[in-house]
Write the structure tokens for this entry.
Amino acid sequence: MNFSIYDFTSFTKWIDNALNSSMSPGWAILVELVIIGIVFIAFYAVIGLYLVLAERKVCALIQNRLGPNRVGPIGMFQTIADLIKLLMKELIEIKHADKFLFNLAPFIVIIASFMAIAALPFAKGLHAIDLNIGIFYLFAVSSLGVIGILLSGWSSNSKYSLIGAIRSGAQVVSYELSVGLALLSVVIFSGTMQLSGIVESQANGWWIIKGHIPAIISFLIFLVASTAETNRGPFDLAEAESELTAGFHTEYSGIKFAFFFLAEYMNMFIVAAIAATVFLGGWMPFHIQGWEGMNNVMDYIPPFIWFFGKTIFVILVMMWFKWTFPRLRIDQLLTLEWKYLLPINLMNIVLIAFIVLMGWYIK
Amino acid sequence: MNSEYLILFFLLGVILVGGAVVFSMFVAPNSTNPAKSEPYECGIPVKSTAWIQFNVGYYLFAIIYLIFDVETVFIFPWGVVMRDLGMTAFVEILIFFFILVLGLLYAWKKGALKWV
């Protein structure tokens, strides 16, 4: 296996050396931080805007419509036009609202998703920060967004917002357990929490293949639980349009509303990226042992294409969920988590521990 | 990059939201009107505040969640070292899960998981 042509470690080292040789170390670090900042803000905006467009297109496809097709070729610039429109809209101040918390909520929602993106490995050597507790960090940070949602619902002093926010709180905290335990199964398999280490451990096969039945169970649980954790349909009780107007962001207008919308799509990207990294091999190409010819061809596809391909696959599955299943009731939602997913997950962890102990997985 | 640089990503979020909100304040129109600043309530005048008591069920689930979430934090380090410790770790986690599941069954039996 030869990944050297796509090893980004040398690329980032080269930039680092070039900057250090041309200016003092303090300035070099500052310039690096600015470069990383600009790259990530641009990446964040592009991914967020185009996921919104993708959702509208997928929805249109499933409902046998055309979807947005006026602004730009096949509606390519529709969401950019929407964003500009939202920037121009008035920011309405709500009477009797808690002003400070009301304005703080969009910050928390966006910051939580930004901090999660920091730890994702896009290719070998192409990650902002490679924490040694990466997966644990993602699990912790990706659940911070719910604080923003609760604040937004509580502070707007509107009944719809409050109902949406507390529903979302109950839902997100419940499903977070399943997300954590599903991720734990791969930690047991690979014996590390570092995301780059988990990806390296999948060089000879992705965990969903190597871990056979229990890994598939974990993957399915992760898909369901992360769909619920990001407040997406069929679990979108928090913003159930037909009963709560817009749920927790009913009272937000203009660009503040846009940030809640953006954060929802970014969270979907983040959970899909985690699923791709942890279960589907991250940036590792698809390999079948013994088929050297095919493996060599696969190695020539750049790793970030593998990463984004898998992420987009998971995102499309989640969109397909949303436009296929009807919304659950809150009691059905909590029953599904506490009486089905959680016991199955605990059993699954014991099964995985036993399989790893006996060495019955594909090494 | 070291983990201290996580502060950069925190700042990126603040810059993105703060910048856009400040920009919007300059370009967006602004007209005040008593009816506009009322919280939305299907068009009828607002009755009382929304800061009221709500269903205790939400609170109950949050408490059960808290217990299980702390357990999850305990299991993660176990997952990393399980392979090295071997059978001892497996037996210990069985005991741990037994106690955990007993707690879940107790909550279930008491009806804490039933939505009312």
User: Anything to note?
Assistant: Chain B has one domain: 3-109. The mean pLDDT of chain B is 83. The helical segments of chain B are 6-27, 56-85, 87-109. Chain B is about 65% helix and 0% strand.
